[in-house]
Amino acid sequence: MRFQLKRLISQILLFFSANLGALGFRTGFCYPFFYCNSCPAATSACPLRAIEQSVYKGSFYWKLFLFPIIILGFFGVTSGRGVCGWACPIGLLQRLTGKVARRIKKNPKLKKIGQLKIEQYLRYIKYLILVILVIFTTYIIGFMFTDICPIGFLTGTIPTLLLYPSKFVPNPFFWVALTIFILFLILILSIERGWCRYFCPIGAILAPFNKISMLYVSTVNKNVLDKECIHCNACVNVCPMGIDVINMNRDPECILCGKCINVCPKNLIKFERV
Amino acid sequence: MKKIMIIQVCALILVSSSLSLMLVQTDIYDRVQSGIVEVLCLSCLKLEPITNTDFIFETTNGIPHPDFIIENLTKGVIFLHYSEDACSGCDIMYPVIKDLFNIEFGKEEMVYNITNFEDYEIIYYYANLDHTNKIMKNSFSIYDKDDIKGLPMFSIITLGYDKGIIKPYYTTLYGTLNLDNDPDRLDYLKHLLNQSIDIYLQNSEGYNP
């Protein structure tokens, strides 16, 4: 439990550090997680915005394209999707909505849907969003994901409207973005970490790094596992990303939250590092 | 086990050295800071400021008007048009501005054009803030009347009479002007340009830069 408290503190501290722009601290880095540079208190740039600017309408600025990928790559090589579990403010939000989602999950009908085979394929949507909406449509027709991004709406549009209520009015993208934002809220309230699982394009960049990251979650060796595991399924039930923990091998979905480690009665799951 | 360690170390060296090289050898840090973090893309924000067309004399933070503005005001009203890369709001406004002044330009970083608007000369400046020069970048913050720091932004600078002196007198508009279609935006800008030309004609004789 103390471990999860440490993770919560980390998430809260990083949320505040992502908003140091309120004190005038603005850098030229990209966030290694999902946060919008349109937020009135933003410290850094959204990595997706940098990628979109680099490939907009047939252009290609390699420096601007590589910069966010290298920053994400650095965090990916060291801790895989650890930033999703330990740093991302949207992860923190979903940690809060996760309790509601867990309750809803107990509904037998929804449980059945969650057990459908198609669920694992839905996880590829985030890769499609990254390739199609962030890169392809931006390059070909100039349609950008960030113009309709629900995270931008949450962290940029809403705070701006609250801080300057009589200064701004909706522009042509507002209503589409609002609709997507409402769907986003329904998603994260009905599926635990639904955004991270299925839609987050930054998660799509980080996920492959789980295969080579220096820090990762692993089970003990197979012989010991076969002998000692009591198949209580506690690890699978507690996993916010819905991973089959016992059979996972550097799963691209693992966000290193460590909940499975905390819950295993036989201590068969652990953090591994080089 | 050893193979994965070699891959990890190589990957870490690769990303660390690439990141260091990019930060030291290129202007990427400044580009991201000045282009993405410090300047708002209003289409990303999904909002735009309420259009306020009041003409004023005071520049932001009282910074003096740039030389190119002072000099060009002897020729006519100045229209400043600012945009950036990957800005949907800017893309919405390009055709309106091109129609307004009957001009054509592509992916230029900067355009300077003395153009005609209803038989009057208008000095038109276009600047893509991601690529333009320092003078134009500075002028963006000088004419950011409502302190929005957002794009697209348009400033119309004419001449006004203030306590016995004829001085630059300007207004600034943002985003898609809170209007839904191009004909309305065009009419709105035409009306505002006509108004600024009238003010210019009233005051230009007494202008001494």
Give the topology, please.
The complex is a heterodimer of chains A (274) and B (209).
Chain A lengths: L1 H16 L29 H9 L6 H18 L2 H5 L2 H17 L2 H7 L3 H5 L2 H16 L9 H14 L4 E3 L3 H17 L3 H6 L1 H6 L8 E5 L2 H7 L5 H5 L20 H5 L5 E5 L1
Antiparallel strand pairs in A: 2-3
Helix pairs in contact in A: 2-3, 2-8, 9-10
Chain B lengths: L1 H24 L2 H10 L2 E2 H4 L1 E3 L17 H6 L4 E7 L4 H14 L8 E8 L2 E9 L5 H9 L7 E2 L1 E10 L2 E10 L7 H22 L6
Parallel strand pairs in B: 1-6, 3-5
Antiparallel strand pairs in B: 3-7, 4-5, 7-8
Helix pairs in contact in B: 5-7
Q: CA-to-CA gap between the ends of chain A?
A: 25 Å
Major beta sheet, strand line-up of chain B:
4-5-3-7-8
Strand content of chain B: 15-25%
Q: Low-confidence parts of chain B, pLDDT < 50 over ≥5 residues?
A: none
Main beta sheet strand tally, sense and closure of chain A: 2 strands, antiparallel
Our count of helices of chain A gives 15
**Could you report the average pLDDT of chain A, rounded to the nearest whole number?**
93
Polypeptide structure, described:
The complex is a heterodimer of chains A (274) and B (209). Chain A is mostly helical and 274 residues long. Chain A is 56% helix and 5% strand. Chain A has one domain (2-215). In chain A, helix 2 runs antiparallel to helix 3, helix 2 (47-55) runs parallel beside helix 8 and helix 9 crosses helix 10 (174-190). Chain A is globular, with a radius of gyration of 19 Å. Chain B folds into two domains: 2-37; 40-206, Glutaredoxin, CATH 3.40.30.10. The model of chain B has no long low-confidence stretch (mean pLDDT 92). At the A-B interface, helix 2, helix 3, helix 9, strand 1 and helix 10 of A face helix 1, helix 2, strand 1, helix 3 and strand 2 of B. Strand 1 of chain A pairs antiparallel with strand 2 (47-49) of chain B, so a sheet runs across the interface.
